[in-house]
Structures are given as C-alpha cells and as structure tokens.
Amino acid sequence: MLQKIVIKVNINCQICKTEVLKAVTKLTGIDKVSVDGEKGMLTIVGDVDPVLVVRNLKKIGKVPEIISVGPPKPPEYCEEFKFRECRPCPPSCRECQLIFTSYPYNDGRTCSIL
C-alpha cells in the first residue's frame, strides 16, 4: 500500500543529508524521497515499512522521530487537464497530416521522406 511517511531527523550538514539518503534508499518499495535540511524533515513516499526506515536511520547514529504516516496526496491537475483517464490520440490531425515524398536516384535507389 502506497503511503507517505514524514520523519524528523537531525540533519546538520551535507554529509548528514547524504548519509540519511543512502540509509533510506537501500530499502525496496520507495517511490520518492525528499529531505528538508532546514526543518530536519525526511519525507518518503512508497510501499515501505516505517519501522524499517527508522531502523536504518538508527544504524547510522541518527535519532529519528516519526511525525506522520498516511496516504500520499493525489497529484494536482490544473482545470484544463481535469480528466484522469488517458484517451488514445488519433494517428494524425488535419494540421499535421503525413505527407509522403519519394525522390528517385539514377542508380535505381529511392529516398523516401515522410
């Protein structure tokens, strides 16, 4: 089940951020990971157990605190593209119809251009 996990973890420098990302990305089932170094927040979206995430962070010497676990926000669509189902596109429209041209060479070969 896809879920969003927000964890508070102490991130003081770029090395800390890199270690946190390495520890978390070892787990399978993660779709998206983001780190906010200023707030000290780690956000993970995917099918992963929060306990495993905390365990991996503790292994590198961090003290993680789970803030929230829940479903991720659905992607936002602008009003113009409100439909979610994919409609098949036609092969061509009136403005971009395919034009086929063939140019013969003297040696019997032809060059075809669409």
Features:
single chain; 114 residues; alpha+beta; 4-stranded antiparallel β-sheet; two-stranded antiparallel ribbon; 6 strands; 29% strand; elongated
Q: What is the helix fraction of residues, given as a range?
A: 10-25%
Structural class from helices and strands?
A: alpha+beta
Report how far apart the termini are: 47 Å
Question: What spatial order of strands do you see in the largest sheet?
Answer: 2-3-1-4
For the report, how would you describe the main beta sheet? 4 strands, antiparallel
Shape field: elongated
Q: What's the rounded overall pLDDT mean?
A: 79
**What fraction of the residues are assigned to beta strands by DSSP?**
25-35%
The count of helical stretches stands at 2
Short summary of the structure?
The chain has 114 residues and is α+β, with helices and mostly antiparallel strands. It is 19% helix and 29% strand. It has helices at residues 14-25, 50-59; strands at 3-8, 30-36, 41-46, 65-70, 101-104, 110-113.
Itemize the secondary structure elements and their pairings.
Layout: E1 3-8, H1 14-25, E2 30-36, E3 41-46, H2 50-59, E4 65-70, E5 101-104, E6 110-113
Antiparallel strand pairs: 1-3, 1-4, 2-3, 5-6
Domain HMA: 2-65
GO molecular function: metal ion binding
Pfam family, one: HMA
